[in-house]
Amino acid sequence: MVSKESCRNEIRAAIEQLSERCLHSAAKWAGEQLVGIEQDPSNFTPSNTRFQRGSSSIRRRFSTHESISTPQPSVGFSHAATPLPEEDEVTDCDLYYLAKSYFNCREYRRASHVLRDQMSKKSVFLRCYALYLAGEKRKEEEMIELEGSLGKSDAINRELVSLERELSALKRTGAIDSFGLYLYGVVLKEKGNETLARASLVESVNSYPWNWNAWSELQSLCTSIEILNSLNLSNHWMKEFFLASAYQELRMHTESLAKYEYLQGIFSFSNYIQAQTAKAQYSLREFDQVEIIFEGLLRNDPYRVEDMDLYSNVLYAKEACAALSYLAHKVFLTDKYRPESCCIIGNYYSLKGQHEKAVMYFRRALKLNKKFLSAWTLMGHEYVEMKNTPAAIDAYRRAVDINPCDYRAWYGLGQAYEMSGMPFYALHYFRKSIFFLPNDSRLWIAMAKCYQTEQIYMLEEAIKCYKRAVNCTDTEGIALNQLAKLHQKLGREEEAAVYFEKDLERMDGEGLEGPNMLEALVFLATHFKTHKKFEEAEVYCTRILDYSGPEKEKAKSLLRGIRMEKTGFPSMDMEHFPL
Amino acid sequence: MAGLTRTAGAFAVTPHKISVCILLQLYAPSAQMSLPFPFSSVSQHNRLGLYLLSLTKSCDDIFEPKLEDLINQLREVGEDMDAWLTDHLTNRFSSLTSPDDLLNFFNDMRGILGSLDSVAAQDDQIILDPNSILGMFVRRCILAFNLLSFEGVCHLFTSIEVYCREAHSSSAQYDASNDNLESLIQHDQMDMEKYIMDKATEEIKLQKNASGSIPFHLHTPEALFKVTEGLLVTRKEKSRASTKKIEATPITRASSSTADDNLVDESLFLRTNYQIQGFLMEQADAIETHGSSLSSSSIESFLQKLQNLAPELHRVHFLRYLNKLHSDDYFAALDNLLRYFDYSAGTEGFDLVPPSAGCSMNGRYEIALLCLGMMHFRFGHPNLALEVLTEAVRVSQQVSNDTCLAYTLAAMSNLLSEMGIASTTSVLGSSYSPVTSTASSLSVQQRVYILLKESLRRADSLKLRRLVASNHLAMAKFELMHVQRPLLSFGPKASMRHKTCPVSVCKEIRLGAHLLSDFSAESSTMTIDGTLSSVWLKDLQKPWGQPVLSQESGSRKSSTFFQFCDHLVSIPGSVSQIIGASYLLRATSWELYGSAPMARMNTLVYATLFGDSSSSSDAELAYLKLIQHLALYKGYKDAFAALKIAEEKFLTVSKSKVLLLKLQLLHEHALHRGNLKLAQRMCNELGGLASTTMGVDMEQKVEASLREARTLLAAKQYSQAAKVAHSLFCTCHKFSLQIEKASVLLLLAEIHKKSGNAVLGLPYALASISFCQSFNLDLLKASATLTLAELWLGLGSNHAKRALDLLHGAFPMILGHGGLELRARAYIFEANCYLSNPSFSVSTDSDTVLDSLRQASDELQALEYHELAAEALYLMAMVYDKLGQIEEREEAATMFKKHITALENPQNEEPNMA
């Protein structure tokens, strides 16, 4: 385990360097992790706990550590130490300051112009980075300006070509630092050269691991586990963060959770890790866990908007209207023009059954970020509710085209087609969704239902699907019941009895009652009677007697029959048997 | 969704249009002179005017010429003042240095328009009538510019810069080729008076441009077509009816081939929906006609480009699907098909009905099902296809889309008749739809029949002429292959006319081909479609009439792609395709009925008339038929030579049958030469080509095992051969391949004959004959009769008379239509009969025998059929021996020996054709 102290020192220096280069989001991320590190208990009185994050305590923390802020290599048992790079001399400090302040005021072109003749690595990076951002900004604008009748025109970042030329020249001569490599990677990625981009980013993170931007760019380029494993990354604790997030994207949730758990040993109070853990838990459908985590997060960081749409999904699933509206109100006041906020509000309206309004907010989310995946899927759900199948299909398809692994959207597509009476067509989509999430019983059940429709009526296939669902621990218990019924329908009494028994067991275990229970009991009683297993039959019959209704009478007559067959007594004697 | 809310295309100002405006300014300057400055004569002035007219008309095209191309054309038009024109053009462009200059430019443009009400203009004044085509163009440009936001002006400004820069960089290359062009132009004196500005010509040109560099097969006079090829040069040619066309085309070719480069060019300007849709349809057609000879990756890259430019244009996905379909990429095809229908709900592209027209709420997913079904069919998944089509039937019934239903039923019947579906399995058991469920108790043939009838009825009532026609053809095929039985036959009363009816086949074929006359009455049909796309395109074409007009507000009526297609191509591709198919079917039916000349003639008609408008697979089929004919009637040498040509032409076609035919020919050849090992190998390879899925590629499988049995027979492994033939007969019965049954029976008779079991062979031969009778397979019947006669003779020489009578009955058919082998066999057999007849004396009637034998040996030489040839020569030698003609006997004997040695050492003279 790396020592917390060394981590702290590394991050502190990194924040300095990152903000010096205007990599604000990376600096923000690093800052979050910095305060996420548990304090050394020896330095503090027990009253200085994390939860009293008053301004005074933070100030005190910093003051205590000023004395030992000299960078020292951290020695972890599995982590090679990466020395902090030394700041190269900026030839004209003044110009750099000016450029930086321009940059901070979002005047990117001006910033790059100021640095036009500066040759130090830092200046070159800032100039290129500013140029890149200027190009991005222009691209966004052009996209709206050029929006034609057939959709958006292909606006491109016009600076990419010159940037690539310059950066590759720098790379050839070796006059490039890790930040430059990061930018080069980004440019290459935009140009569609993924392999080179990956190589450049790997080089960047290996020489300077604290730049989270580089890691996340790299993560977006790892679309399969093979690619991820083929990366040649040197060991550093930042790599653990990267792996955790990459695993999550690759839907390896348990692995990802394990990583986060490990990281929590050092960064025990990191909001980031908590949110990511919540995400993984959400994918594992542990909604209660997720809710607890998010409640904690909101207590610590009440103005957080990131990832809050996930929380709203949980609240939606729990049908917690009030909590959801409270959350929506809060994020609305914080920043209403964030796709997350729009999604939360959309979710709220959806829960209230006002689907048109929900669609409006999802649309707004998509206006803000055309690639905001969950908004497409959620909008699809809304259209399904509104019975507008083509629109729903369109929305789902867009989600799928943005991220082909989005099993929810595939599932939605299947559902939409099934709704419009095309079960066979829908099967393909269900298959797709199952391919991406083979361990979810709901998907298997949906597919089985599809096979069961009277249009297709492929019961054998349906049985196979239900069996898979049972293996995936079907929580709602549909599969067992259906399996039993299907077997019954196909005249396979033995199999039907086995599944009815299993279903009964499950219901007993969960303490459930209902028509399914009665059905199972009646079937089993009759089945065992016809197979002359009177002991079992009697047990089931007596259980039926607890219920009222026609089944009770049937059970009585069954019992009579059993006794008669067992003893050979004439039936008249049984008439007086006290029941 | 976004895809549904877009507006119909607008008129956008582009650098090219500004060029045209600059030229217009030159043509009609606001200063009112009778003849503006640079022009030296009125005709020169007129010429520029006509050129401008054509330019303005083509401005709605997808591709705009680059400045370079424009300058090249100007050089031709401008003659001595071309330098001045181009200089002016470039100078004017370079004077546009700020957005303000653009604003001023368009303000100036306003000046060249005359006022709307000033009709009383003086004679010598040049005023651009605001209502003329040129005036309209200027007005539209001005309007479009005025509508631009400042951002739009900035974009226009940057694109002008790019436009000029491109011309600069390439002008250096141009000078080199300039001389050539210059010299050509000197030959011509532009004679404008003779040149009649034909509206259609312009439109063809539009279309030509739209189709990129892919040749466009129009059934228009060649001269007209030439105009489309060469923009101006050939136009001059035409007026002089000169012979220099050949010279002219290479140069103009070069200019037209740049269109292809444009495909992937950054400066591809998006035009209206109609143009793009039309363009895409052209591409779809090209994919279909050229098969995979069109490089799939080049189409792919162009589609990628288009998709980047217009992400809401979902039709791109459909094209990609077609492309993948033709390059046999199942997964990509499936993916793109689904994606297309997910996005567009089957409504985009063809009807162009605004979403308010009611289709947005439920979509047209039944079309998706239809397409998916046909895709599965093509990839050889009959069961999947059947399920999907059943669902399509159900959904079309639910949404009462009768058109789609008619198409689906047709597709289904096609599937059932093409794919061998064992009659024992209940294929439609899972469906509950009314149409199909009635059929579930019937045999596959009866189901096919019902489906066809049903589809035909619906298509007829919906006036889907193409579908009616193709249904008639399918019906003809059905009548050809199946005995019409009453659908519900109970007891002995049911009529048992076990015969196919050639008259009804003929009737159906004729009805199918009637389309041509019908078509002229049809006004609002579209013309371009590939078979797959066409099926559902056609179904969507009805609502065109009004929506197009109402959206287009009249002014652009003539420019919409679909409408002008109508009046310029006399016969649209799909119609000629169907008519062509009727000829192919005619050829096939004559083949079956046993008339070689008729079959050959019909195939030739097809190959010459419809070869280029048809899809590549049909054209291939015609070629193969011709080659087969050659092999049968002319021997292998010619056939292999022809095959080489066909190979070059068709090997790139996906699912090419050329290889199949090659193997067949090689097998036949090897069998005749007695090279059994080679024959066996060919046979195995043939079997390996067929898909392993049950019921798919039945024809190939039957062919392969038939040949296997024949190889075994030639190797004298009679029991093995009989076993193979028996199991083949069972397969044929299972999949009810009636015609194949007849030939299998004949083969069985043959096997028994060869094995010396004439008695056992007789019933097979008789059964084969009765099959042939009920299907009217005259030639096969003749050959079965020959076998029967041979079997009789095999029973003993006392049956020679009966055998001879049988033979003589079949002789006319055999000699008139039979192939070389059959004829030779008949001749030899005739001689044999005579010789074995005890009452026949060689010395008196030697000529009857010798003639036949000579004939036989000649024909067998061509066929290189050593075994039979040896037999004929042997008989000949014997006869000569009897007659005492020693010399002739020796000659025949040496020939005999040659054939025998060749037969025994087949490897010695390996065929060089392989």
From TrEMBL, chain A:
Q: Which Pfam families match?
A: ANAPC8 (PF04049), TPR_10 (PF13374), TPR_11 (PF13414), TPR_8 (PF13181)
Give GO BP annotations, semicolon-separated: anaphase-promoting complex-dependent catabolic process; cell division; positive regulation of mitotic metaphase/anaphase transition; protein ubiquitination
Keyword check for Cell division = yes
Gene Ontology cellular component list:
anaphase-promoting complex
Q: In which pathway does it act?
A: Protein modification; protein ubiquitination
Q: Where are the TPR repeats?
A: 339-372, 373-406, 407-440
| Span of domain Cdc23 | 7-278
Q: Which PROSITE patterns match?
A: TPR
The region annotated as signal peptide is: none
**Keywords annotated in UniProt:** Cell cycle, Cell division, Mitosis, Repeat, TPR repeat, Ubl conjugation pathway
Q: Domain of life of the organism in this record?
A: Eukaryota
Q: Return the similarity comment.
A: Belongs to the APC8/CDC23 family.
* Name of the protein in question: Cyclosome subunit 8
UniProtKB/TrEMBL annotation, chain B:
A cellular component annotation (GO) from this entry: anaphase-promoting complex
The answer to whether keyword Amino-acid biosynthesis applies is: no
Q: Which domain of life is it from?
A: Eukaryota
The leader peptide range reads none
Q: What is any one GO biological process for this UniProt entry?
A: cell division
UniProt KW keywords: Cell cycle, Cell division, Mitosis, Ubl conjugation pathway
Pinpoint the Anaphase-promoting complex subunit domain residues: 317-417
Q: Fetch the Pfam families from UniProt.
A: ANAPC5 (PF12862)
Q: Does the keyword Translocase apply?
A: no
**What family name appears in the similarity comment?**
Belongs to the APC5 family.
Q: Which function does this protein serve? A: Component of the anaphase promoting complex/cyclosome (APC/C), a cell cycle-regulated E3 ubiquitin ligase that controls progression through mitosis and the G1 phase of the cell cycle. The APC/C complex acts by mediating ubiquitination and subsequent degradation of target proteins: it mainly mediates the formation of 'Lys-11'-linked polyubiquitin chains and, to a lower extent, the formation of 'Lys-48'- and 'Lys-63'-linked polyubiquitin chains. The APC/C complex catalyzes assembly of branched 'Lys-11'-/'Lys-48'-linked branched ubiquitin chains on target proteins.
Report the protein name in the record. Anaphase-promoting complex subunit 5
Organism, scientific name: Raphanus sativus (Radish)
Traced from the root, the source organism's taxonomic lineage reads: Eukaryota, Viridiplantae, Streptophyta, Embryophyta, Tracheophyta
